Hints:
The protein is an alpha/beta fold. It has 3 domains: about 5-160, Beta-Lactamase; about 185-430, 3-Layer(bba) Sandwich (Glucose Oxidase, domain 1); about 445-705, Phosphoenolpyruvate-binding domains (TIM Barrel), CATH 3.20.20.60. The strands form 3 sheets. An 8-stranded mixed β-sheet has the order 7-14-13-9-10-11-12-8. It has an 8-stranded parallel β-sheet with strand order 21-20-19-18-17-16-15-22. Strands 3-2-1-6-5-4 form a 6-stranded antiparallel β-sheet. Strand 10, helix 11 (about 345-350) and strand 11 (about 355-360) form a beta-alpha-beta unit. The longest helix has 26 residues, at about 135-160. The site of magnesium ion (MG) has 5 residues, from helix 22.
Amino acid sequence: xxxxxxxxxxxxxxxxxxxxxxxxxxxxxxxxxxxxxxxxxxxxxxxxxxxxxxxxxxxxxxxxxxxxxxxxxxxxxxxxxxxxxxxxxxxxxxxxxxxxxxxxxxxxxxxxxxxxxxxxxxxxxxxxxxxxxxxxxxxxxxxxxxxxxxxxxxxxxxxxxxxxxxxxxxxxxxxxxxxxxxxxxxxxxxxxxxxxxxxxxxxxxxxxxxxxxxxxxxxxxxxxxxxxxxxxxxxxxxxxxxxxxxxxxxxxxxxxxxxxxxxxxxxxxxxxxxxxxxxxxxxxxxxxxxxxxxxxxxxxxxxxxxxxxxxxxxxxxxxxxxxxxxxxxxxxxxxxxxxxxxxxxxxxxxxxxxxxxxxxxxxxxxxxxxxxxxxxxxxxxxxxxxxxxxxxxxxxxxxxxxxxxxxxxxxxxxxxxxxxxxxxxxxxxxxxxxxxxxxxxxxxxxxxxxxxxxxxxxxxxxxxxxxxxxxxxxxxxxxxxxxxxxxxxxxxxxxxxxxxxxxxxxxxxxxxxxxxxxxxxxxxxxxxxxxxxxxxxxxxxxxxxxxxxxxxxxxxxxxxxxxxxxxxxxxxxxxxxxxxxxxxxxxxxxxxxxxxxxxxxxxxxxxxxxxxxxxxxxxxxxxxxxxxxxxxxxxxxxxxxxxxxxxxxxxxxxxxxxxxxxxxxxxxxxxxxxxxxxxxxxxxxxxxxxxxxxxxxxxxxxxxxxxxxxxxxxxxxxxxxxxxxxxxxxxxxxxxxxxxxxxxxxxxxxx
Length: 751
Ligand code: PEP
Ligand code: MG
């Protein structure tokens, strides 16, 4: 339980490089835990050895010299058995290994604690004290708290150690295949339009490396490089502050690797010496960046792989600042990023750096990248057209989200048309739609409209468009976007902000829904052959209790003094539900014992997303405080159709007899038990489904906040009586064809 500010972000910002950061971090740890010495051993996954990287109190000359395997010493034992090792007179322990160069003999008490980033082991913290009374429980807890925050920052430092060698010059090969594309077709995330010059960031053929821009000048000197470096540093500091303000839930320390690298001698220092020795500044930037890309690319660790994009990003910024052209921010304004693959965290960084749009190779796309792109309001076009790889740095691109097409170097008349369209689109988006406080059918039935929130940045729209609460907060986004687990404290801040901003209106916090297509880059890859049927959502939480408890405690603390609703995703039985609720009770007890302010009586709900939950909907309705039907998943599990698989997209439909009948049964079960029920899947905003839902008894819908005005407008034209007749008719129909003809819609075409 994080009870004090145990953050290391201030040190990350102030440090002059990696070594300096680590030294200061161990100094702070020793002071806060109250020990005479503190040392950090980092673990190398390839050699499987722990190396002393920083110390406060042991001989500094031992740094980089002492190295041990997991079979050696009490430090190795702590990581091998993943536990705290505490000893008084450690020399008496047979596992103790003496390193004379460390000058350890003077200490009588010892404690070692493994450090993780998520579930990836990063190293071990070893504490020593001259007194022989040992370390007490309070010190262990304090160290645990600090170690979890340090873990987040350490991932970046570890990466920089992996790239210690001086770079050898290499020449990137920007040449792509011969066939040049003029038009690329794909699928867009929204109806936005973007125009700009291409910047290649992906790992596709021809652009795995940073490329020299076509308009580069080779006359830059060492002093212009130093100016560009200083400017880049200042810009990233501003950017970090700005993103923390606007995207506080997902962007904490998101640019920390950039800052650390810019200050690190083996990165910017090497560039500077190369320039001093006669290499033109842009070439030095490209060569050092590509050296990093090459070395990082060899690492099997997904955490390190992820840093490749950071390094290229930084190279891009340095080059732009070196060119001093009309880009005062050195960022992606006026540019469209072309990439083969993007992690959610990379998408956030690119959007924060003002890219106009993103063109992404389709196989790199995932459902959460497109959900996120919508929330970040950046147009993204996914395409599996290999012609994407023929795009060159500096090509002029238009990305048209209306038709799902991207134009490469179009004629000036086309560009003029799209510039106008883009201007109109932006103006229309700024006009606030007229929305009423309450939504009523034309015969007076109130229907409550709430918002589905993915990022805190969705909240202002929800409030402006008068959402009557948050019907679903997808808590996984801060987990997916960042590259490590958010701490309890960080989660608490997000949930608290959400509850306070909604000013007394209902807020439903859903516990972590990862697995399926929502993968965490910092968790070891799973070998599940059916991830949607695997360790997903509540199943993941029930298997990872410490992660679950941290989240529940953060939610309970955030709900202090307010009504709090906690929702479990993918419940498959009453037993799952009871087990999950039991953990809420455990956390309430923990907080009460620790005298931490919290909400001791949260309302607990179950998501109905599985056919099995539908079969026990009555029992779930009886035991829970509310039900929420996640129809996006329910449809896929009822019909056996993967919601993310394009090949079967025509079979994924809610206009199916099984869906209507199941929904009717579930709604009836809830109504019979007087348990509030809402719909929070996409069908809640679908004009073909809303009359059925209202007719079947639904009084609460939770939708993408941007759709609130159109949903309200549609409902205001409906009569409850007609909806009831409509719903009764639909559940009588036994075939898709009959339903299509009744609704007046075409059968979806096969892909
Ligand atoms: C759903 O399944 O309908 C739902 C709202 O959850 P998600 O889309 O986040 O899986
Ligand atoms: Mg779902």
